[in-house]
Design a protein that fits this description.
The protein is mainly α. It has 17 helices and eight strands.
Length: 408
């Protein structure tokens, strides 16, 4: 019987030895833990050459490797990265969403794996599960981005050899047989045939009519509308200034769980969002009427709600309204009046504004400026197709093809 023979190397270079099953075993010393106990990483390889490669892969990290990476799972390291680094790199709203995706989609699948054991195949399977569970490319994209950023960090810190996410392609949307109903659902603007009914229903509520007409006639985001003050308007010259937006700030405990949310007024979504915009005459009349109603309320409440520094749509105590509270008022009102579909959500007003301009044959650059998008490609995605208007082009097509131009 062949005696087991170890191949000795210099300190910290590892050892390999034959196994009874014909394969090759090996280990690498990773240092000493807090109790003075030696930490070793053992492995099995098909042959001596593969064992040499595994030792090279492991020992190549030892110069600045954190020993904890071999004691803790990938999930432990990723959670630590999020709570130490990620939380300071993004807004609290984004971090709250990141933690949700981490806990729901990443943690259950990678729970028992070490960082250096995760490869492209594992990442592909994880992302496939995310898509199968949600049928949402947006969620899958956010999970992929979060994993990519973590593994970028892991590579920089030499916790792993490479980023397994980089070679994983995005999942393409499944092919399907589209119906007319599917086409209508893809349109994010309020349908032309529903717009007047929508405005008529809102006319029964002065607050919601005034609030939503700002979005309908200017394309402002709801956070920007809630942050508007009377001093932002120049009614004489028909303009308004956008410099702020209402959002919320989240406080987290030591485990990344949201424990408190607070409404705040801050700079708008992007630098491009800061602008002076035209104020349509129809909206000027609506807002001046709203101001008169606020003056009457001020007298009843014995508080001034129409000072230049007051928010247009403030609460009765003069404080700013938050997004979620305002959405609840809006949603409950629409449901009571029979408008229950997602066609009428707040952001649909922004899509509707842009689509109305497109249907009026306004050029794309002007629409982009009014919506304050950095890229015209973003604007193009905002603009819904008017199916009835497209079908009305049949007469023009008939004229073109029934009377072809003769060649000279």
């Amino acid at each position: 019987m062949t005696k087991k023979r170890k191949t000795r190397r210099s300190n910290n270079e590892g050892s390999i030895y034959p196994l009874k099953n014909g394969k090759v075993g090996g280990y690498v010393n990773l240092g000493i833990d807090e109790n003075g106990k030696r930490i070793r990483k053992f492995f099995t390889a098909n042959n001596e050459e593969d064992a040499e490669k595994e030792i090279a892969r492991l020992t190549g990290k030892l110069s600045s490797l954190k020993i904890e990476s071999f004691k803790n799972s990938c999930i432990d390291l990723m959670k630590e990265w999020m709570l130490v680094f990620r939380i300071n790199e993004v807004t609290s709203r984004v971090f709250e969403n990141d933690m949700r995706n981490f806990n729901i989609h990443i943690k259950p699948y990678l729970q028992n794996l070490n960082t250096c054991d995760i490869d492209t195949v594992i990442i592909k399977k994880l992302l496939n599960k995310v898509y199968a569970k949600n049928h949402s490319l947006d969620v899958q994209k956010k999970v992929r981005t979060l994993l990519k950023q973590f593994f970028n960090y892991a590579v920089e810190e030499k916790l792993t050899q490479y980023n397994p996410v980089l070679s994983v392609k995005k999942i393409k949307k499944e092919k399907k047989d589209y119906t007319l109903e599917d086409i209508e659902k893809n349109n994010k603007a309020i349908k032309p045939e529903h717009r007047q009914k929508y405005l008529d229903i809102l006319s029964k509520n002065d607050f919601l009519l005034s609030l939503c007409c700002v979005g309908y006639y200017t394309g402002l985001r709801i956070g920007e509308i809630l942050a508007l003050k009377w001093e932002d308007f120049d009614f004489e010259n028909g303009s308004m200034m956008i410099t702020k937006g209402v959002t919320y700030e989240v406080k987290f405990d030591e485990n990344g769980k949201a424990i408190e949310k607070k409404n705040i007024v801050s700079s708008p979504k992007t630098d491009a969002s800061v602008a002076v915009l035209p104020l349509p005459n129809v909206l000027q009349k609506i807002l001046l009427s709203w101001k008169d109603k606020q003056k009457i309320k001020s007298e009843k409440l014995n508080v001034n709600l129409v000072k230049d520094s007051d928010y247009l749509f403030c609460k009765d105590d003069g404080t700013v309204r938050g997004y979620y509270g305002t959405r609840s008022i809006y949603k409950n009102y629409l449901e009571k009046n029979g408008l229950t579909t997602s066609e009428f959500h707040f952001h649909a007003l922004r899509h509707t504004f842009g689509t109305i301009l497109k249907d009026s044959e306004e050029n794309l650059i002007n629409i982009q400026m009014l919506l304050r998008h950095k890229s015209s490609k973003t604007t193009e995605r905002y603009l819904s197709m008017n199916t009835k208007k497209v079908l009305s082009l049949k007469t023009k097509l008939d004229n073109v093809f029934n009377n072809p131009q003769k060649e000279e």
